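User: I've been trying to design a sequence by hand for this structure and keep getting stuck. Would you show me what you'd pick, starting by listing the structure so we're on the same page?

Assistant: Good idea, let's start from the same input. This is the structure you sent:
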């Protein structure tokens, strides 16, 4: 069995990493769990030939065209990051023989290469106290907020008042407005956006953001040059 995916480039030592897996579960034995740590790196490239077994010849082509061994360019073996991921569970008499090709690509070509899991944005919340909320009402307001936006400020002489401590945490659930609709107002800062980026693990989120900004700048420059 062969899992192979590449676009325009010929699979070579610079854009493809090849692993093989050959495991079997003997008849009469217990079920066998196959883990990702059993994948074996092939620094010389694919070992599967493109010709059928019936064809003969010494120069049979494989599914990769490595000009040199990846051991010459890699400081350490190219293993998998997590060794305990379950690939399959084999029953007695079953076996798996495969080559897995990890191919370098970009999300523009196919979503499977996108390093971004989820990305979204929201405008910065602004929580405004229209009136002073003191003592028992202040304590009730603090308890009502599920994300602890409000806090208590001690004014001395037994007096307390509510203050907005963490406006950024506000989810605009409006629980505070339901409690004191004439004392609390929720707004959004129209020119302040909070971006949240989740990575698949291929690149850190901060790198994803800076690279995305670079691409956006290039697109803007291209549009400006076309219009000028």
């Amino acid at each position: 069995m062969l899992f192979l995916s590449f676009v325009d480039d010929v699979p070579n030592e610079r854009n493809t990493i090849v692993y093989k897996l050959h495991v079997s579960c003997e008849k009469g034995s217990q079920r066998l769990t196959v883990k990702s740590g059993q994948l074996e790196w092939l620094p010389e490239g694919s070992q599967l030939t493109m010709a059928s077994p019936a064809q003969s010849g010494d120069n049979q082509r494989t599914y990769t065209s490595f000009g040199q061994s990846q051991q010459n360019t890699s400081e350490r073996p190219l293993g998998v990051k997590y060794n305990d991921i379950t690939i399959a569970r084999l029953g007695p008499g079953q076996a798996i023989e495969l080559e897995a090709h990890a191919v370098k690509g970009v999300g523009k070509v196919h979503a499977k290469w996108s390093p971004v899991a989820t990305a979204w944005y929201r405008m910065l919340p602004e929580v405004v106290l229209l009136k002073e909320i003191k003592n028992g009402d202040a304590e009730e307001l603090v308890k009502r907020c599920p994300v602890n936006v409000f806090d208590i400020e001690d004014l001395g002489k037994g007096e307390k008042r509510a203050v907005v401590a963490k406006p950024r945490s506000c989810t605009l659930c409006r629980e505070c407005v339901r409690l004191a609709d004439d004392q609390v107002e929720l707004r959004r800062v129209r020119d302040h956006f909070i971006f949240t980026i989740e990575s698949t693990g291929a690149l850190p989120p901060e790198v994803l953001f800076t690279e995305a900004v670079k691409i956006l700048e290039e697109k803007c420059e291209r549009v400006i040059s076309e219009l000028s």
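That's my pick for every position. To get oriented when you compare it with your attempt: Helices lie at 135-144, 175-179, 205-227. The two ends are 54 Å apart (CA to CA).
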